[in-house]
Amino acid sequence: MARQLSNDFSWSKSRHELMSGCLRAYYFSYYRSWGGWERGAAPEVQQLYGLKKLHNRFTWAGSAVHEAVKDALLNYRAKRAVDPKEAIERVHRKMQAEWRHSHAGRHWQDRRTFAGLREHEYREALEPDTWKRNWEFTQQALAWFFQSRWPALAQSLPRERWIEVDDTDFDRSVFYLDGVKVFAVPDFAFFDEDGTPRVVDWKTGSARDGYDAQVLGYALYLSERYGLPLEKICASLVYLNAGVEKEVPCTPEAVEGFKAFFRDSVGRMKVLLADAEKNVPKGEEAFPQKEDPASCAECVFRRPCGREAFTLQAQAG
Ligand code: SF4
């Protein structure tokens, strides 16, 4: 029997970022588009859901890299060989097919193949070599991964030292903080030779604020799910394009900092609810648009939000 979904309140780093960026986009994404996958949903709700699922070229490249690295790790865990050249070519072919799917607007009929690109949906004016550069960026991240220490390390791990690889199981990939459900899907977690639990988050692009909080959240998740002492977990951010690794210590101060950030964020989300227990939002007026329409140029919701014409005019100069 199909599982009944209900829009329960939960917290994630991406939810926090959307709320901080634009309250109206947050409302569209977490409330107004809910149920838009159902055939019988109102057209407006289906439209919002389709828009919410769009990628942009950067998130698309990041997802392609994460998927390919995940596949490689799962193969290493199963003691299967991986040919880096073939793996990268496979990603290229898949992205080419997805690009065509999106360019033809087929994501509105078939989102399973690919959810589409914002750049196509809004006919954005792009530099001629934009897509070529996007592929080069993807290829660069994968090429660095395959020549890094990580494949050899993963291949050397016996089965009992693997903890998790990007396990997107929405029933299990959660932990509770102050009674709030928090989603956490670490990219790679394993035990080191001396038994130290390590959690790794792959990043495409450059370093930015907030990544430490994300990986600390993963450490809390591992600690709760597997009963691991939090202070013993080593968390790392690995920047695949820059070829840089950064350790994020799980000190008591850092964990307290994460919890304070989390509580503040949850408090700001709850203020927007008419019924906190049932996760029912206040009316749309409680979720104002951004003041400056010029900052809407990259938003997936600019059409239903009434800001598409403005961004088109701005693009035309
Ligand atoms: S178009 Fe602008 S105001 Fe509207 S949801 Fe997007 S970012 Fe917010």
Characteristic key phrases:
three-stranded mixed beta sheet; 10 strands; alpha+beta; 317 residues; 2 domains; five-stranded mixed beta sheet; Trna Endonuclease, Chain: A, domain 1; globular; single chain; binds iron/sulfur cluster
Notes on the structure:
The chain is α+β, with helices and mostly antiparallel strands and 317 residues long. A hairpin with a 4-residue loop joins β7 (234-239) and β8. It is built from eleven helices and ten strands. α1 (13-21) packs across α2, α4 (57-77) runs antiparallel to α5 (84-103) and α5 (84-103) packs antiparallel against α7 (130-147). It is globular and about 55 Å long. The strands form three sheets. It has a five-stranded mixed sheet with strand order 2-5-6-7-8, sandwiched between helices. It has a three-stranded mixed sheet with strand order 1-4-3. Strands 9-10 form a two-stranded antiparallel ribbon. Iron/sulfur cluster is lined by residues 22, 24-25, 289-290, 296, 299, 301-302, 305, 307.
